[in-house]
Amino acid sequence: MPNPEKYVYARKKDIIRSQEKRLRNTLRYVYEKSPFYRRAFKEINIDSIGNAEELEKIPLTTKQDLRKAYPLKMSCVGKEKIVRIQMSGGTTGQPVIIPYTRHDVEQWKEMLLRDFMLAGIGSGDIIQITPAFGLWNGGFGFHFAADAINAFVIPIGAGNTRNQIKFMKDFGTTVLCATASYPLRIAEVAEEMGIDVSQLGVEKLLLGAEPWSEEMRKVIEEVFDATAFDIPGLTEMGGVGTIGFECPKRNGIHIWEDNYIVEIVDPETGERVADGEEGEVVYTSINREAMPVIRYRSGEISAVVSRERCECGIEHMTIRRIKGRTDDMVIYKGVKFYPSDIERILFSHGVTNYRIEVGNGIKIVYEGDETALNQIRKDIREFVGFSPRMEAVRFGELERFEGKAKRLVRVQEG
Ligand SMILES: [Zn+2]
């Protein structure tokens, strides 16, 4: 097994050398193996593209392209080389299918082993995996890496929160892998069961699959008396934990640049934006076999923090933690915002359950004290830029989620 430390702390020149070599190989490879890319690249001399900068000459790939490729039209290998598939995509329309060869499963595992190393997760850990085992990528991704380090794995999968807590208690779970909103649901149910989650012995939480704010992290870390890490990743790039991991000094996400190229573009024009400027993340996978994806528009919103060596010693580039998704962006009276902008403010007032209703203006319904209402509205006006309608409801009145939380509701305007 490759030593993750060697790659995590590689020198920039070695990272870039490896990146450029893999980029050239990948472009040539998809051009030869995939009719989709041969068509997309027909006006381009791909041999003239040898680094991340020059990648801009290539058109962007969209989720719609991947949908149209159902079931395996974008695959660069025949079925005999495919060892599994995972699925991405919304609840409507054609699913997006990502095939994996043995190499790809190994690559997935390798990226997660880097993440585990940075989080200090080892063979002595008891790892409870709460994302589903199935076509969605979460469960298996964590499993491959946890299994590889010979940790004690609890592959419990999604749902049944009371059972999750019982297992955490009875087996002494030290690492909890989950969607970002799930730990607080666990804490809530534990309280009903008369259990204080801070006493359970969970030391680390690996949280992903949805954007979550620093304010939410603060609450989770306090409630669990543990450290919460942001683990990004998307099926199109191979799944959870593949693209990078959170900086140990919390300066953002370090992208594994020897495996992925990240660009930030203007979501409207598709043009690159300057470092530091917010935009949509575009990913290129350069170390995958069944279905490398070139310049994929992820819908995620972030910005480049730095391309230089980080104070933590890592020389892979740094981007901001994902703030939201282009689909979740709301424009109201000329003000652009993401649910996470509201979440930050609500969490800072101790509110952890809420719903944002868009349409007929904007209304925020939250569980909690009415006395905080005016101050919350004032903070939203000051920090986000508009004044929403607000309603405080009793604790327990809003819907609870065991997977990704659906906090944003678009209601019919009328
Ligand atoms: Zn760092």
Notes on the protein architecture:
- With 414 residues, the protein is of the alpha/beta class.
- The chain folds into 2 domains: 1-251, Rossmann fold; 329-410, ANL, C-terminal domain (GMP Synthetase, Chain A, domain 3, 2-Layer Sandwich).
- It has 11 helices and 23 strands.
- It has a 5-stranded parallel beta sheet, with helices on both faces.
- Helix 7 (161-171) packs across helix 8 (182-192).
- Bound molecules: zinc ion (ZN).
- Residues 247, 249, 251, 254, 310, 312, 314 line the site of zinc ion (ZN).
Write the layout of secondary structure elements.
Layout: H1 4-8, H2 12-33, H3 35-40, H4 63-68, E1 82-88, E2 96-101, H5 102-119, E3 126-129, H6 138-148, E4 152-154, H7 161-171, E5 175-179, H8 182-192, E6 204-208, H9 214-224, E7 227-230, E8 233-234, E9 239-240, E10 244-246, E11 253-255, E12 260-265, E13 279-285, E14 296-302, E15 304-306, E16 318-319, E17 324-325, E18 330-332, E19 335-337, H10 339-348, E20 354-358, E21 362-367, H11 373-383, E22 389-393, E23 408-410
Parallel strand pairs: 3-4, 3-5, 5-6, 6-7, 20-23, 21-22
Antiparallel strand pairs: 1-2, 8-9, 10-11, 11-16, 12-13, 13-14, 14-17, 15-16, 18-19, 20-21
Helix pairs in contact: 5-6, 7-8, 9-10, 10-11
This protein binds zinc ion.
